Every structure is written in structure tokens, then in C-alpha cells.
Amino acid sequence: MIESSAKDDLLHYLRAAREALLWKLDGLSEYDxxxxxxxxxxxxxxxxxxxxxxxxxxxxxTFGRPFFERxxxxxxxxxxxGADMWATADESxxxxxxxxRDVWKHSDSTIATLPLDAVGHVRWWPEERARxxxxxxxxxxxxxxxxxxxxxxxxxxxxxxxxGMSAGNDSMPPGDKAWWEDYRxxxxxxxxxxxxxxxx
Length: 200
Fold this sequence. Notes:
It is built from six helices and two strands, in the order ααααββαα. By secondary structure, the chain is mainly alpha-helical. A two-stranded antiparallel sheet has the order 1-2. The longest helix has 27 residues. The chain starts with 5 loop residues before the first helix and ends with a helix.
């Protein structure tokens, strides 16, 4: 018989998302972890900073267990829109990663301390759906963290071609550079053929 604990399962997937996101910073320069690689500015260190703040809010304030004594400047009243999505030159990699790891401890403590049916209040959601359970918030934060880990996968591939789900598990089909170039070429041809067929 398989033993299963709802909290253990939720924590497993939350921790996997956290580690995947941080792993994408490994081996990169300060420039490469900060540079914007999409038209909307998506960058690796900014994703970590954003997810740290999101997790701190959902597992902290929502359940009356605030992580921050006062909001950081990027969440304070009147902060520039998107300030949580990038790191200034004086915000260090170590500082942001350290903050994220401290948030993990706080979140894990909330999950360990409260029952999954504990009720909280998400201040920044519309009032008609602001009342939530810890279980709902666990699912919400896992989904958000995995989404941003996926963003980080793409950004890292754009930086230096590195891919994979975790250290030692790239979860990709085997193939050398020539194989991947051929594969990409076939996808490009299929896309063009589909487009010309649709146009006709």
C-alpha cells in the first residue's frame, strides 16, 4: 500500500519548483542572471525576487504570520510597477537568493503549523474570493512557482543553451547539436507548410 500525506505531497512539488528556479542561476554571470530576454523584461534573478515576494505574502500575511516587518521597497505603497521583477545593480544575487531561502523556511513553518483547512484572507484579491484555505494557497503557490520555473527554463536556454529540469535530470531527448538543429529545422518547415496551407 502506498503511504501518502497531502502536506508532504504539496511540499514535495513546492520544493521541486523552488530548487528548479534557483538552479537556473548556477554558473551564470551577474549580467546573464539580470539581463532582460523578452520584450517585457523577463530575467532570471527577477523571477526569483518575484517568487520570493509572492510566497512571503501568501504564506505569511494571508494567515496572520507576516514574513516582512515592513514591506520591501519593491512592494511598498507607490512602488514602480514591476519593481519586483528585476534586481537593481545594488541588490545582490546572494541577497535575493538568501531572501528566497528565508521565505521557504517561513512558508514551510506555516504549512507545518496550520491544518490544510486553516482559513486565511488574501488582502490583494477581490473580497468575494479573498477567504481561502491553506490547501488552496499551497496549490496556488505551487502553480505560480512552476509557471515561473518554466519561464526560467526558456530564459536560461536563451542565455547559454542550457536546458533541463534539475541537476542530473535534463528530461530532454538525447541528441547532439546537429540532431537538435535538424529537429528545429523540421519544426520550422512544418510551421511554414501549415501556414501556407492555411493561407491557401
